[in-house]
Amino acid sequence: MQQTTIDHSVQCSGIGLHSGHKVHLVLKPAPEDSGIQIAVSGNGQTRYHRVRPEKASGTTLATTLSLDGASLATVEHLFAAIRGLDVDNLRIEIRGGEAPIMDGSAAPFVFLLRSAGIKKQHAPRRVYRLVKSLEITDGDRFIKARPYPGFRVDYTIDFAHPLIGEQRMSFDLTAEGFANAIAKARTFGFLKDVEALQQNGVALGGSLDNAVVLDDYALVNPEGLRFHNEFVRHKILDFIGDMALMELPLYGRFEVRLGGHALHNQFLRVLSEQRAKYLEEVELAPQAPARDMATSLPGEATGVPAPA
Fold first, then answer.
1. Are strands 279-283 and 56-58 parallel, antiparallel or unpaired?
2. Is 264 a catalytic residue?
3. C-alpha 226: how far from its chain's center?
4. What is the pLDDT of residues 247-291, one digit of tens each?
5. 2-124 and 127-295, same CATH topology
6. Which of 49, 77, 261, 264 is catalytic?
7. Would you state the pLDDT for residue 133?
8. Higher confidence at residue 287 or residue 119?
9. CATH architecture of structural domain 2-124
10. E strands along the chain, which residues?
């Protein structure tokens, strides 16, 4: 299996979720073995920094990176699309301090990457394969990981809201499976929380155009949900994006309960700091295409029906 990058540069503009200002994104091809890199400009120079778990400086509401003094927020949806489509090498330029929120999902970034064309390179793809089980817990929240010949996540959420409750979903990551089952799931929040955040100068770009919003009893968005369990699907999207901060794609089976950006990054930092104990770097041999899988497990809450 070969490494990939994009065929040509692409760009887009949008609103920053937290600033409410216009931001700009450019994606460029990158050489083999360069990984995912983000440009930081200063003193008349542009330097590219490879993303790593320890570069995450903030995990409240979104994942924020600090690179050479620059802060770049809300990168998880973009990174989910990059990892979801198996793009190994990419250069990213963000102007405005955060990635554009677009429609609150990863689907616009999937479209952008596919518009650029994903091309194979000559070097074999390298991954970090989990070789030893690892568990991170925080009260009733946890991430349990164990070896697996691919990337599989079993995610459970539980919100005290009549339209959410407990939802559980299992997903094996493939490019088509991600594009069809995960990428379109939007970020979500509660109206009372959004109002409080905006009063404190946060989430100023948030709207019904880029988030699923719920009041105490119902869905505020007039168009309804894209999936009956869009909430847990978006949490899987966030998890894939946060795991993409590792220098190489991760292979393992991950069971997550009540996770979030903070727990995701805590887990990644343990893996990164103790990679000799838990991870093995391997080259992937050519293989037949994997079967796309996206299944809801018994006990999954149905939420509300998807719109017709």
1. unpaired
2. no
3. 18
4. 999 999 999 999 999 999 999 999 999 999 999 999 998 654 444
5. no
6. 261
7. 98
8. 119
9. 2-Layer Sandwich (3.30)
10. 2-6, 10-15, 22-29, 36-42, 45-50, 56-58, 64-67, 70-72, 90-95, 118-124, 126-130, 134-138, 141-146, 151-159, 165-172, 188-190, 212-214, 250-257, 279-283, 293-295
